[in-house]
Amino acid sequence: MTAAVRLALPLLAAGSALAACGGGSPSLGQQVQSWGGSTGFSGTLRQLRADLRRVGAVSADDAGQRRTVCDVLVTDALADNEQLPTPDGALTTLLARAYGTAAASGRACFGGSPLAQAQSDARTALTQLVQAEARYDALASSLGGAS
Question: What is the 3-state secondary structure (H, E, C) of 86-147?
Answer without folding.
Answer: CCCHHHHHHHHHHHHHHHHHHHHHHCCCCHHHHHHHHHHHHHHHHHHHHHHHHHHCCCCCCC
